[in-house]
């Protein structure tokens, strides 16, 4: 649709649809339609060559076409052509984005895979190390880091550097466990495909480069476009929580992938699915009792900290304990031209031990703020933040679990709120302050000149 709309513009040129065109090609590639993806990529690349020449350095977008064609050619079984396009993507990204950019790192991983398959393990190691350096310190790229560690470990094994390989294997498995907590297979049973699945969608950069406010809509559209990826998308992409009403208790509850079974969602209040289904997965009696207590506790927490909103807690059984998620949501619309919403998703595992329990908590906050006024225009501040923590805490009985989980969630939310307020909002305020001024520019310049004159006169004394 965006391509059609852009073609209607008075100043339309072919190269101006480059970005939506490469994203559309990525969708066809993910859906297995390599021929259509190749056609769109070649068409888009030709338009950029026509406009900017063969040595286009106008932006990184040409590099995306090269990288996309490398993926498509590999899918079509033409490894030689895929390698040539990878080299072009590498050179273009390095000149337009730099070696430390995540796009350059993605290409470095692909080149590392190519050199590893061709037996050039030292070169493969160098490229994968380069990629890991680019991903370092950026939690958004945890799936990419897991894959790069896994592939580099293979090269290290081939080079006889077994101690280093063990370190990379441990790092890759630790990251894999975070991203796929329900998969308990040892590393020996995992394959390249398992690590690729962690980023089969994210690597296309479709969602990370779109407005976070529209994530839910974009996920639904992509599920319609590629039904085979629906389950994976719904499991891996955090979207704002939706609200349903329990038909039995008439209470609202929050919906996410953790209380979903097909097209039905389990209510924490009645333990029944909406709409009703047969043989829906429910927790054991012991875990359900803890779930009920947790919902009661977080209902009070929600009222005290959020002064409204909705909360829902879901528990389920795992082999060595239990796991669950705590969901909190509050949306406000103080006027017809302003709105905001806060969604907290806290997913945890609790491993039972003697008088102690080991907790792993992954917390996500999705924040959407928007306003529209005649004086200032439209403002949209949206995004999400993910943080993780592990802790060993004493346990006397099942009630202790509820208390411990409450403490972990409370501490994590406090840290994330402070981080948002002091760092993210503070930085946004500084940027806006540099871009826009409340007073007229002439007044600001006059004040600045007066200030400078005073300093000069004081110095003269």
Write the layout of secondary structure elements.
Layout: H1 2-7, H2 18-30, H3 34-52, H4 61-75, H5 79-96, H6 102-117, H7 121-135, H8 142-158, H9 162-179, H10 192-197, H11 215-225, H12 230-236, E1 242-245, E2 252-255, E3 260-261, E4 264-266, E5 273-274, H13 285-305, E6 310-318, E7 321-335, E8 338-353, E9 356-373, E10 377-394, H14 398-435, H15 441-460
Write the element-wise H/E pattern from the N-terminal end onward: HHHHHHHHHHHHEEEEEHEEEEEHH
The CATH class designation of the largest domain is: Mainly Alpha
Mean pLDDT: 84
Largest sheet, in brief, is: 5 strands, antiparallel
* CATH architectural grouping of the largest domain: Alpha Horseshoe
Q: Can you tell me the CATH superfamily of the largest domain? A: Tetratricopeptide repeat domain
CATH topology descriptor of the largest domain: Serine Threonine Protein Phosphatase 5, Tetratricopeptide repeat
Report the radius of gyration as a whole number of Å. 26 Å
Number of separate structural domains:
3
Mass-distribution shape: globular
- Helicity range: 40-55%
* Order of the strands making up the biggest sheet: 6-7-8-9-10
How many individual β-strands?
10
Please state the structural category: alpha+beta
What distance separates the N and C termini?
68 Å
Strand content: 15-25%
Number of helices: 15
Keywords: Actin capping, Actin-binding, Cytoplasm, Cytoskeleton, TPR repeat
GO molecular function, one term: actin filament binding
Main location: cytoplasm
Protein name: F-actin-capping protein subunit beta
């Amino acid at each position: 649709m965006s391509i059609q709309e852009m073609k209607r513009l008075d100043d339309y040129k072919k190269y101006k649809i480059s970005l939506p065109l490469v994203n559309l090609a990525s969708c066809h590639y993910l859906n297995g339609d390599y021929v259509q993806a190749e056609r769109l990529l070649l068409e888009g690349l030709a338009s950029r060559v026509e406009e900017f020449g063969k040595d286009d350095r106008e932006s990184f977008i040409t590099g995306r076409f090269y990288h996309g064609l490398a993926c498509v050619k590999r899918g079509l079984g033409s490894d030689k052509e895929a390698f040539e396009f990878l080299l072009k993507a590498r050179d273009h990204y390095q000149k337009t984005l730099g070696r430390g950019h995540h796009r350059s790192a993605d290409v470095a991983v692909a080149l590392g895979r190519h050199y590893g398959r061709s037996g050039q393990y030292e070169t493969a190691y160098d490229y994968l190390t380069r990629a890991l350096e680019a991903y370092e310190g950026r939690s958004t790229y945890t799936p990419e880091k897991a894959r790069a560690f896994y592939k580099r470990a293979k090269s290290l094994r081939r080079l006889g550097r077994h101690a280093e390989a063990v370190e990379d294997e441990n790092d890759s498995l630790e990251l894999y466990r975070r991203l796929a907590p329900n998969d308990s297979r040892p590393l020996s049973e995992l394959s390249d495909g398992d690590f690729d699945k962690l980023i089969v969608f994210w690597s296309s950069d479709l969602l990370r480069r779109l407005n976070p406010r529209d994530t839910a809509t974009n996920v639904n559209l992509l599920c319609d476009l590629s039904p085979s990826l629906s389950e994976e998308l719904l499991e891996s992409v955090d979207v704002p929580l939706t609200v349903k009403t329990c038909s039995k208790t008439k209470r609202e509850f929050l919906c996410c992938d953790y209380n979903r079974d097909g097209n039905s969602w389990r209510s924490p209040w009645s333990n029944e699915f909406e709409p009703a289904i047969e043989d829906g997965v429910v927790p054991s009696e012991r875990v359900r009792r803890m779930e009920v207590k947790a919902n009661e506790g977080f209902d009070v927490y929600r009222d005290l900290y959020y002064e409204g909103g909705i909360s829902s807690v879901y528990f389920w059984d795992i082999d060595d304990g239990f796991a669950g998620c705590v969901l909190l949501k509050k949306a406000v619309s103080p006027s017809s031209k302003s709105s905001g919403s806060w969604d907290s998703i806290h997913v945890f595992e609790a491993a039972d031990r003697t008088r102690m329990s080991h907790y792993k908590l992954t917390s996500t906050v999705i924040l959407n703020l928007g306003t529209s006024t005649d004086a200032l225009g439209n403002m949209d501040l949206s995004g999400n933040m993910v943080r993780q923590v592990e802790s060993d805490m004493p346990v006397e009985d099942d009630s202790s679990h509820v208390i411990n989980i409450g403490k972990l969630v409370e501490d994590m939310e406090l840290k994330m709120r402070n981080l948002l307020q002091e760092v993210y909002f503070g930085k946004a305020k500084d940027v806006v302050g540099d871009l826009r001024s409340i007073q007229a520019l002439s007044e600001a310049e006059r004040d600045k000149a007066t200030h400078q004159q005073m300093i000069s006169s004081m110095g003269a004394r």
